């Protein structure tokens, strides 16, 4: 995803993924399956995205929120600043979390089953990517 905030000049500096955090989850069971009932179900990769709120500098510069999360559908919507619905792009993930979701809730929903599976002897990987201090 492009940067999640825009100012007068458009996208955030660097144009990169500076305000989103993604977790690539490699597990032996589907996201949300129980560790007891879903063991050994085959490997899969799940991608989970979290967007953080605007912080002080961005607010002071007059930047606006342009990434909206539809948590129920697992869709991140990127809205062009001052654009219409035609100017938005939808990106579908296995799960998305908005800025109101706690770290604990994200862990419980996206990582706990993998950790439990690893503790039961299965392989599992959680890869977290995001700008330092991005939440």
Written description of the protein model:
- By secondary structure, the chain is of the alpha+beta class.
- It has two helices and ten strands; from the N terminus they run ββββαβββββαβ.
- It has helices at 56-60, 103-119, and strands at residues 5-7, 10-11, 20-27, 44-51, 64-65, 67-70, 75-79, 88-92, 95-97, 125-129.
- The strands form three sheets. The protein has a four-stranded mixed beta sheet, covered by helices on one side. A three-stranded antiparallel beta sheet has the order 2-1-5, with no helix packed on it. Strands 6-7-8 form a three-stranded antiparallel beta sheet, with no helix packed on it.
- A hairpin with a 4-residue loop joins β6 (67-70) and β7.
- The longest helix has 17 residues, at 103-119.
- It starts with a strand and ends in a 6-residue tail after the last strand.
- Mean pLDDT is 75; it is low at 1-40.
Overall mean confidence score, pLDDT? 75
Structural class: alpha+beta
Q: Helical percent range?
A: 10-25%
Major beta sheet, specifics? 4 strands, mixed
Radius of gyration: 17 Å
Our count of helices gives: 2
Runs with pLDDT <50, length 5+? 1-40
Query: Given the C-alpha coordinates, what overall shape results?
Result: elongated
Give me the oligomer status.
single chain
Q: Count of DSSP E strands?
A: 10
Q: How many angstroms does the end-to-end distance come to? A: 17 Å
Q: Which sequence of strands runs across the widest sheet?
A: 9-4-3-10
Fraction in beta strands: 25-35%
State the order of secondary-structure elements, H for helix, E for strand: EEEEHEEEEEHE
């Amino acid at each position: 995803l492009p940067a999640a905030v825009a100012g007068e000049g458009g996208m955030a500096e660097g144009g990169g993924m500076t305000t989103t955090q993604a977790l690539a989850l490699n597990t032996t069971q589907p996201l949300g399956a129980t560790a007891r009932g879903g063991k050994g179900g085959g490997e899969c990769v799940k991608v989970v995205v979290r967007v953080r709120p605007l912080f002080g500098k961005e607010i002071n510069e007059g930047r606006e929120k342009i990434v909206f999360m539809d948590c129920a559908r697992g869709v991140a919507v990127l809205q062009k600043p001052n654009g219409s619905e035609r100017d938005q792009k939808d990106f579908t993930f296995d799960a998305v979390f908005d800025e109101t979701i706690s770290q604990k809730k994200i862990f419980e929903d996206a990582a706990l089953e993998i950790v439990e599976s690893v503790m039961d002897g299965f392989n599992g990987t959680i890869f977290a990517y995001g700008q330092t201090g991005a939440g």
